[in-house]
Amino acid sequence: MIKLKYYPHDLKFSEVFAVSSNARTSTEVIYVELEYQGNTGYGEASFPPYMKEKRDDNLLYLSKLNFGAFNSPFQLHEIYHYLDSISDENTPAKAAIDIALHDLMGKVSGLPVNKLLGLESNKYIYTSFTIGIGEDDFILRQLNKAKEFKTIKVKLGGDILYNKHAIEFIQSNSNQNIGVDFNGGLPNKDIAIDMMHWLAKKNILYIEQPLPVALEKDYIFLKAESPLDIYGDESIQNVKDILYKRELFDGVNIKLMKCGGISKAYEQAIVAQSLGLKTMLGCMAEGSCAVSAAANLASMFDRVDLDGHLMMANDFFEGVMIMDGELKLRRLKPTGIEIDDDKNRK
Ligand code: MG
Predict the structure, then answer these.
(1) N or C: more exposed end of the chain, with fewer CB within 10 A?
(2) pLDDT-based confidence at 108, cuts 50/70/90?
(3) Where do the domains of the chain lie?
(4) Is 87 exposed, middle or buried (0-12, 13-18, 19+ CB in 10 A)?
(5) Ligand 1 centre from 149 Cα, in Å?
(6) Are 334 and 73 in contact (CB under 8 A)?
(7) Ligand 1 geometric centre to CA of 55 (Å)
(8) Nearest alpha carbon to residue 145 among 322, 283, 330
(9) Does the pTM exceed 0.90?
(10) Ligand 1 centre distance from Cα of residue 233 (Å)
């Protein structure tokens, strides 16, 4: 029989994290534990402010669950059906359960999750390092942390003077490749096009969600005019969005918390690729448990942006290690999603 435990936690950022829509010093998560035959599978749900999912609702949802009818974590699809029968929503809580189930399957079988999924790979997989919006001294401190990474993802917003200054300042202090994420911060398509042409001259690799979800119809025009690949993130919350919005973007940013976990992210990557879309594997500002779970899928994706845990000062877990910008899952026994669950736990 599988037994569920869960508890909320506030992850604190080591420095204020600012994007175009907000700045914060901490972020809310829920940790989930599933016990089964002496093993514990761990999962994590995170709650960025822009998503409509709230932690209290997800805690309430978790309080309604009872896994008494299931006698194995390998009953994945029956469990998904049960989770959806309780509520259509609460996607982050479902992601946390899915992560914990995969962790359990790995621990029970003695295999890392990437191998369970048939994704064992010899590829070198590099993640980008994200730099939030801030003053020059903040950017310099972040660049110092980002030294080992091949690619930096720079958060920009609606302030065009700031955007140009930040890119020029970073390029005067670093030779790294740069991608840009506006988090929907540009006010209209004309400003967006000017910004894209300017960024293309600066050899930026790609841009992410330049316009807000409310101006989505303008992405048809942007995609036609843009010299750079445009990835959708806030606009792409589920597999239907990938299907219906495929004409709007060159690529999609897929995250476990948006789609509901490892299985759903795997499915979304396959759907997106079959439609000719480029794929990025992203994460929220979240801890090592959720980021390490996502890392098991990384070999499927064109771009990987799994650095949310690097910003945290009080992460319960130790998980995927990053050396010279390369993702290296820990090789701990038992395996599962390969997190060290002994660190600072309650
Ligand atoms: Mg984004």
Answers:
(1) C
(2) very high
(3) 3-110, 116-339
(4) middle
(5) 18
(6) no
(7) 20
(8) 322
(9) yes
(10) 5
CATH topology (fold) of 3-110: Enolase-like; domain 1 (3.30.390)
Which residue, chain included where needed, has tokens 């709230």? 54
Comparison of pLDDT for 336 and 302, the residue scoring more: 302
The string of pLDDT tens digits covering residues 190-227 is: 999 999 999 999 999 999 999 999 999 999 999 999 99
- Cis peptide upstream of residue 334 (ω within 30 degrees of 0): yes
What are the phi and psi torsion angles at 165 (to 5°)?
-60, -45
String of DSSP letters for 160-213: HHHHHHHHHHHHHH---EEEEE-TT----HHHHHHHHHHHHHTT--EEE--S-G
Tell me the backbone φ, ψ of residue 290, rounded to 5 degrees: -70, -40
Distance 53 CA to ligand 1 centre (A): 17
Distances (CA, A) of 22 to 132, 156, 315: 11, 12, 22
Query: What spacing in Å lies between the alpha carbon of 182 and ligand 1's midpoint?
Result: 7
Residues with CB under 5 A from ligand 1 (ion): 181, 208, 233
Exposure class string for 259-277: b at 16+ Cβ within 10 A, else e: bbbbbbbbebbebbeeeeb
Taking the centre of ligand 1 as the mean of its atom positions, its distance from the CA of residue 300, in whole angstroms, is 19
Identify the helix (H) or strand (E) that includes residue 241: helix 239-244
Give me the DSSP letters along 261-292: SHHHHHHHHHHHHHTT-EEEEE--S--HHHHH
| Domain spanning 116-339: CATH superfamily | Enolase-like C-terminal domain (3.20.20.120)
Distance CA 57, CA 48 (A): 14
Question: What one-letter code names the amino acid at 227?
Answer: P
**Distance between Cα 252 and ligand 1 center (Å):** 10
Indicate the residue type of 110: G
- Report the separation in Å between the CA atom of 209 and the middle of ligand 1, taken as the mean of its atom positions: 7
| 250: its two tokens | 């060159």
